[in-house]
Amino acid sequence: MIVTVLVGSASGLHARAAARVAAVAASCQSPVWVRRDDGKPVPADSVLSLLTLAAPYGTELVLESSSVVDLSLVAQAIAAHDGFVASDGLGGVDG
C-alpha cells in the first residue's frame, strides 16, 4: 500500500518532526518506508534516515508498507504535524 504526503512547512522535514514520525513508525508491527518521489526508500523508524531525505517545503514523500494499519498510523502521524498535509486531504491510504 502507498500514501503520498506533501511537506507543507516552510522549515521542511526537520529533526523534531522526524523524531515524532520515527517514534510512531518504531511502534508499528510492519516496516514502513519513506522516499522522495524519485528516490531510494528509507526506514520511517529512523530519524537520521528521514533527515537524509532533505525534504524542504512542497516535497512529495511516498510512504509504503505491507500493513495498511501501520501505513495509516505513520501517515496520520505525518499529517498531524504542523506543516504536513496528506495529498488526499484526509491522511488516508491511496488506492
How would you sum up this structure, described in words?
- The protein has 95 residues and is α+β, with helices and mostly antiparallel strands.
- The protein contains 3 helices and 5 strands, in the order βαββαβαβ.
- A 5-stranded antiparallel β-sheet has the order 3-2-4-1-5, covered by helices on one side.
- Helix 1 runs antiparallel to helix 3.
Q: In terms of per-residue confidence, which ranges show pLDDT below 50 for 5 or more consecutive residues?
A: 88-95
The main sheet comes to: 5 strands, antiparallel
Sequence of secondary-structure elements = EHEEHEHE
Instruction: Describe the strand arrangement of the main beta sheet, using strand numbers.
Output: 3-2-4-1-5
Terminus-to-terminus distance = 7 Å
Question: What is the count of β-strands?
Answer: 5
Structural class of the helices, strands and pairings? alpha+beta
From the spread of the alpha carbons, the general shape counts as globular
Instruction: Report the total helices.
Output: 3
Rg measurement, Å: 11 Å
Strand content: 15-25%
Mean pLDDT: 82
Helical fraction equals 25-40%
Which descriptors would you attach to this protein?
globular; alpha+beta; 3 helices; 95 residues; five-stranded antiparallel beta sheet; disordered C terminus
Summarize the structure.
With 95 residues, the protein is α+β, with helices and mostly antiparallel strands.
